Structure formats: C-alpha cells, structure tokens
User: Fold this.
Amino acid sequence: MIAENLSDIKQGLPSGVKLVAVSKFHLASAISEAYQAGQRVFGESRPQEFAEKVKSLPGDIEWHFIGHLQTNKLKLVLPYASLVQSMDSVRLLEAVEKWCAANDKRINCLLELHLGAEETKQGLSEEEIRDILSHKDKYPHIVFRGLMGMATNTDDEDIIRKDFAYISNLMTELESVSGDDFNELSIGMSGDYKIAIEYGATMVRLGTIIFGERNY
Ligand SMILES: *Cc1c(COP(=O)(O)O)cnc(C)c1O
Assistant:
C-alpha cells in the first residue's frame, strides 16, 4: 500500500520537487516500508518521537523536523535533523544559534511564514522574516535555506491559492536578495500539494496520502 502510494505520487511530481514523507504518529515499521520502496526523506513533528525513530532506523535517511520546537528540546532534534523546516520565532532562532555554537554545528533551516487567518498563530510574520534575513550575521551557525508555510485549512481553493501566492511572491523577492543558499519553498500537504506545485514548491510534505490517516 505505502509503496503503491509513493509511486503514484512520484509520477505526478516534477523532478525539481522533493517529496518529504511525513511519518509523525506512524510506526517505525511504516517508515521501513517506505524506505524499502526507495523513500529517503522523512519529516517528523514531535522531538521525542523524532529522536527515537532516528535511532531505530537506517542511517542514510534524511530527516526533516517540521513541528513546533520548544527551546528545551533542542538536543533531541538538532544533532539529527538535516533541515529544520519550522523556525517559527526569533526566540527559537536565538536558542538554536546558541546551541549550535556550543556544539560546533551548523544547521539548515527554513523560516516558517504564518499564513492565512489560521487558528494557530504559529509562524513568523513577513516583517519578522525580513528583519531576520537582514541581520543574518547574528546567526553564524544557521544556514537560511528558504521558507515554509501551511495554507489555511479549508476546502475553499481560492483561499489556498491566495496563501500560496502570498508566500510564493515573498519567496521570489527574498530569493533575489538573500544569496544562493536561500532557494527552498516548502509548501503543500496531502490536500493541496498539486496546487502548491503551481506556486513553485520545491518541497512538498505529505503524510496522509502516503501512510493513511493518523491515530492521534
Ligand atoms: C502533519 C504535517 C504535514 C502532513 O500533513 P498531511 O495532510 O497528512 O499530508 C505537513 N506539514 C506539517 C507542518 C505537518 O505538521
């Protein structure tokens, strides 16, 4: 089932779009199944679960952290994450910079833009993102790779398109002033990734359509 889902999805993905298989709440055995089918990039959103899975699964997996990261959980995530997609506050950035300096490590991250009128307030404002990028020298151990965003959770396609257009336009603008490293746009989940591709997604984060519904 999982292998079949992956192959169906991959057929529809343009070659420049990276598929991040979001395995949160699913067992390590489900990840193994996807791994056997050739999938190597996985996303997790809870620090403890993330650290446990990293230790029990093959070492050549590229792990992305995509959930809210509390500053007291850094050591569960930063040693293993190839990319932290969910940098959602200046306070977190400062804590990550400090941890990386102390541990002699550089970490790739995406800045999470708060989109839409979502219940969740998670994410940075456009102003905060501009401000962070214009003071990048404050974060020598962080490599800013691009933007991440979650469209409003709605069936109204016009609203989803509006959210993606907004983040896509901001990306285009920031890309031209933020250097070569800054080129990733992580937008699109199971329900809206085909639309996200139209707006220039370079990564899509798919859980449900690969692994099925999550049991919270
Ligand atoms: C859970 C999650 C996803 C995957 O959502 P699906 O709708 O299951 O594809 C993508 N991005 C983030 C940030 C998530 O937390």
User: Anything to note?
Assistant: Residues 22, 24, 45, 66-67, 150, 189-191, 205-208 surround pyridoxal-5'-phosphate (CB under 6 Å). The chain has a mean pLDDT of 96.
